[in-house]
Amino acid sequence: MLSIQELKQIQLSRQHLTEKADKLTVCHDLNGFQAQIMVNVFHSLKIRCNENITKENFGDGLVKNWTVRGTIHAFAEDDLGLFRYKRENHPYRSDDFKGYVHHITRQWLLTPERQRHFSHIILDSLKESMQTRDELKEICLQHGITEHELGEMFQQWGGGIQDLCLRGYINYVVQEKKAFALSPSYVPMNEDEALLEMMQRYFTHIAPATIRDTAYYFGCSQTQAKKIMQKLPLMQIEIDSKSYFYLEELKGDYPEIPRCILLAGFDQLMLGYQKKESIYLPEKHIRGIFNLAGIIMPPILLNGEVVGRWRKKNTKMMFELFEDISDKNKKHVESAMEEIFDDIRKTEWVLM
């Protein structure tokens, strides 16, 4: 019988927070990283990798596209066939456009002919080099796109650009400035095969986890999760009257829980398990990390428990605490900060 403390040791190790690895191994093992805010990907890698991760090199070998939970992730380029598996609604490199449908109104807003026309203009412009979003907009304007059509091709939450990503033509470039590049060719996996591989990675590198955790992570029902889980040779252990499932035998010992880890926003340690049952985040502090706007703030993990969040602006670091902590623990937090950042000139502590 494992304790919650031992479970944390296992999960932190498997997520490469205490046993670091190279960048591509980390990305493969954890199914990439949610990437709405690119600095979070950089930080997630920096705290997990045993190589020098810089703002200039962190995106090398990675691409950005829609994957797990239907959200946009940065992941290893050689995983394109896995995450962009075969889909009827977005067939691989199909030119059979049906027109862009708005994700809220579900109305057709861009004719198939015009969408195809400007999609090819975008693809032709990317043959020379990657282009920023604004550069692509300007190119489309030069070719006669209307303001209404421009809004649909470059709609904030998707649009014609997203359709090109989902069909395997282009990817976002993994960097701070929003840009696009032609996608290398790849062979899309079958859906069943791809989902099984993603779940195998989950149970090897994020689990032990409950069925509720699994459904939460994949954005599916527990029934759907169980259906795929039945295809894996999962092992099971009971911890605090809950059943946890995992792959690969557990080791005899794991690294101790660090004094402090400054996790990234949208960190896998928060996204990997059902937030209301998190063993790291007390339920009373959920809204301090998962805000109502859908943003997952960067947590301060102190001795294995979230006690607040942090934010960095230029050379200033602000620590926003959910509860007061000792001066000794504040030094542990600052030590974790110094291991990651070398440009902090001022720190501020705020009790929320």
Descriptive account of the structure:
The protein has 352 residues and is of the alpha+beta class. Among the domains are: 87-182, Arc Repressor Mutant, subunit A, CATH 1.10.10; 260-351, no CATH class. The protein contains 14 helices and 15 strands. It has helices at 4-14, 23-29, 38-46, 80-83, 112-126, 133-142, 147-153, 159-166, 191-205, 211-218, 222-229, 268-271, 286-289, 327-340, and strands at residues 33-34, 62-66, 72-76, 100-101, 108-110, 131-132, 170-172, 179-182, 235-239, 242-246, 260-262, 299-302, 305-313, 316-321, 346-351. The strands form 5 sheets. Strands 11-12-13-14-15 form a 5-stranded mixed sheet, with helices on one face. The protein has a 3-stranded antiparallel sheet with strand order 1-3-2. Strands 6-8-7 form a 3-stranded antiparallel sheet. A hairpin with a 6-residue loop joins strand 4 (100-101) and strand 5 (108-110). It starts with a helix and ends with a strand.
In short:
The protein has 352 residues and is α+β, with helices and mostly antiparallel strands. Among the domains are: 96 residues, Arc Repressor Mutant, subunit A (Orthogonal Bundle); 92 residues, no CATH class. The protein contains 14 helices and 15 strands.
Which CATH class of the domain at 87-182? Mainly Alpha
Radius of gyration: 22 Å
- How confident overall, as mean pLDDT? 96
E-strand count: 15
CATH topology name of the domain at 87-182:
Arc Repressor Mutant, subunit A
Order of helices and strands: HHEHEEHEEHEHHHEEHHHEEEHHEEEHE
In the sheet with the most strands, the strands line up as 11-12-13-14-15
